[in-house]
Inverse folding.
């Protein structure tokens, strides 16, 4: 049996028909940029997330970058300001900080939880610290009341990188709030492999701040809020109409797809039994949408080769952390043992919503057969 890491084909024929109908609607309209499809999706996604505003942009990196730049343009951030960020995140998170002239302060995650270790944050705060960028990595909710209190205590802005956690929910005192609505603003990626993925690149920023939303919309439109009038040296970063139409259809099925991911993850947690393989801490379903299902193994490469030999595709996220990349060699001297250990041990196994029960059992049985 061959098990692909992720099958991106529509799960059922009716979804294909829905998507093709939406795409045809855009083509028939002959309006391909900043039209009704984008406005409709922005409205629907803002409502889904629970934010007042949603601004579509070209991709997830642009969402992160424009979000931070908007806060600079509004005077809330300045060159050299420090942003605390998890060291084990995808490099896009770091790129958005440095490209805005800000300074990343790398924070360790917990080994079993994979997101920010709250016990390590206090020591990182300096007189230049202005923000925390929390990352809901792998689909796991990285927000907590202690994180919120930490930011309030130090007067820090709380940004969210929600690229991997569409539909994830944080619960407090019976109130359910989706990730992407928990900080001052959040960046979202709609790369095809995401839980809510386009048929190409796409991204968005959600916020309750009208000034921030307007600034991002202007910055992503060459720096213009009215035709041929440029307030800023902006960029061209706009969600196109076809991708917005596709996303609007897929948004209607997102919760269903996430439920399937929960079913698969539950089976893995209940049935993977191998002393050579460690599973991350198990969260309540609403706290994890399982964009990825990471396992940890000291002999990670051997496990990967073993699964490959049994026709099971896997991916390592991320084998070289940002502070050890050539482009950030100025941070090479940092000691981040947990991040570095995760980069050596993490392996993501298949968990796409199109997986069959037979495939899930086969992946589980094969992992259990691994002898290190």
């Amino acid at each position: 049996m061959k098990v692909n890491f992720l099958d991106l084909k529509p799960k059922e024929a009716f979804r294909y028909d829905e998507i093709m109908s939406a795409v045809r609607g855009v083509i028939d309209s002959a309006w391909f940029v900043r039209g009704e499809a984008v406005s409709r999706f922005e409205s629907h996604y803002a409502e889904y997330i629970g934010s007042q505003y949603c601004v579509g942009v070209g991709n997830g990196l642009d969402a992160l970058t424009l979000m931070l730049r908007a806060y600079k343009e509004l005077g809330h951030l300045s060159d050299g300001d420090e942003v605390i960020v998890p060291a084990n995140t995808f490099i896009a998170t770091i790129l958005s900080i440095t490209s805005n002239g800000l300074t990343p302060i790398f924070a360790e995650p917990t080994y079993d939880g994979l997101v920010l270790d709250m016990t390590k944050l206090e020591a990182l705060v300096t007189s230049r610290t202005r923000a925390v960028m929390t990352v809901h990595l792998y689909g796991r909710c990285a927000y907590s009341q202690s994180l919120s209190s930490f930011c309030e205590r130090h007067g820090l802005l709380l940004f969210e990188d929600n690229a991997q956690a569409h539909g994830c929910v944080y619960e407090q005192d019976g109130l359910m709030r989706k990730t992407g609505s928990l900080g001052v603003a959040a960046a979202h990626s709609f790369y095809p492999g995401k839980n809510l993925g386009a048929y190409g690149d796409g991204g968005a920023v959600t916020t309750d701040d009208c000034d921030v939303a307007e600034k991002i919309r202007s910055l992503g439109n060459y720096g213009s809020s009215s035709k041929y009038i440029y307030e800023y040296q902006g960029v061209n970063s706009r969600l196109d109409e076809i991708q917005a139409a596709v996303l609007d259809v897929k948004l209607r099925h997102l919760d269903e797809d996430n439920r399937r991911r929960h079913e698969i993850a539950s089976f893995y947690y209940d049935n993977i039994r191998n002393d050579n393989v460690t599973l991350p801490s198990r969260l309540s379903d609403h706290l994890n949408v399982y964009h990825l299902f990471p396992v940890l193994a000291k002999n990670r490469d051997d496990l990967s080769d073993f699964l490959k030999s049994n026709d099971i595709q896997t991916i390592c996220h991320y084998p070289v952390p940002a502070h050890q990349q050539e482009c950030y060699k100025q941070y090479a001297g940092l000691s981040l043992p947990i991040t570095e250990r995760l980069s050596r041990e993490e392996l993501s196994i298949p968990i796409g919503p199109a997986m069959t029960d037979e495939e899930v059992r086969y992946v589980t049985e094969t992992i259990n057969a691994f002898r290190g």
Remarks:
- The chain has a mean pLDDT of 96.
